[in-house]
Design brief:
By secondary structure, the chain is an alpha/beta fold. Helices cover 39% and strands 14% of the residues.
Length: 306
């Protein structure tokens, strides 16, 4: 099997349609592997994967680690706590020192937008962006696209509404690029203060009302309200946000239909999404988490072929 046209995965924007399709088709193969009693293959037994996480993470970090181990790769997990970062060591120096220990694939999450692209220019190892600032989170968008394809059969013409903090969401940006390339229709909805100016130039529609967004869409993708940004005054309070832009049972009743729900996690229950909907039968959230391992196996495998 041939690898991707790119040597790094720093963002969805850089991927061709053929690359996206190859990742999704390769994911099918690894999803089948994960259904077996022995869920491990020797595909990357000769490689070492470094998980370089400068931000807190549960789903993404564990998913990448599990994906690498399922491929029989050696895995090194870097923790900022107790490292030389606390002594002032830069991102580049940390990465170069770790690469000198023969790392082949570097999975990086960093609070600075562009950090993954910067490392990709500096390192011989293949770099995979696990989330950089408010820029992109490409593997999240890939697992979302895979989940949507499972649900709908095809993304062509599928209507997906991204609801919440669009301005600060790297998940929203990657999904806009990914879903658009795969033929879906994308709309965004949220407080005007959390919708970037001129976002329509990315090929999306802006819907100002949650009920209208739910009526329009085939799937509602609810984004996390970043509590750490509330002090910046983008909206008056969490309670007011929940009342006007939260996805809850009353909004679905007004929309007149039950809409499948997605969320990248972690969920602020009863803020952006009602707890009863997060746990409902039309929630796809746990399926997203499950698919994350197979998608990341596909990415690691394909980049490991170079």
């Amino acid at each position: 099997m041939a690898g991707l046209q790119v040597t790094h995965l720093t963002g969805i924007r850089e991927l061709s349609l053929s690359d996206l399709q190859q990742i999704l088709s390769t994911t099918d193969q690894f999803a089948e592997v994960l259904q077996r009693s022995v869920k491990q293959v020797p595909s990357l037994r000769h490689l070492t994967v470094l998980n370089l996480f400068y931000e807190s993470s549960t789903r993404t970090r564990i998913s990448f680690e599990l994906a690498a181990r399922r491929l029989s790769a050696q895995v090194v997990n870097f923790s900022v706590a107790g490292s030389s970062v606390s002594k002032g060591e830069t991102l580049l120096d940390t990465a170069r020192n770790l690469e000198a220990m023969q790392m082949d694939l570097v999975v990086v999450r960093h609070q600075a937008s562009g950090a993954a692209h910067f490392l990709a220019q500096q390192l011989r190892a293949s770099v995979i962006n696990a989330g950089d600032g408010i820029n992109e989170h490409p593997t999240q968008a890939l697992l979302d696209a895979y989940t949507l394809r499972q649900f709908a059969g095809s993304l062509t013409g599928l209507k997906v509404a991204l609801i919440g903090d669009i301005r600060h969401s790297r998940v929203a940006r990657s999904n806009i690029f990914c879903l658009g390339k795969l033929g879906a229709q994308v709309a965004v909805c949220g407080p005007p203060s959390l919708i970037p100016q001129a976002i329509e130039t990315l090929g999306v529609t802006v819907l100002p009302d949650v009920v209208e967004a739910l009526r329009w869409c085939d799937v509602a993708y609810v984004l996390r309200i970043q509590r750490e940004r509330q002090q910046a005054g983008y909206f008056p309070s969490l309670q007011e946000y929940a009342a006007w832009f939260g996805v809850h049972e009353r909004a679905l009743q007004q929309a007149g239909k039950k809409v499948p729900i997605m969320h990248p996690g972690p969920v602020n229950r009863d803020v952006e999404l009602a707890a009863v909907l997060a746990d409902s039968g039309h929630s796809l959230i746990l399926q997203q988490v499950k698919n994350g391992v197979a998608v990341r196996m596909a990415v690691l495998f394909l980049l490991g072929q170079r």
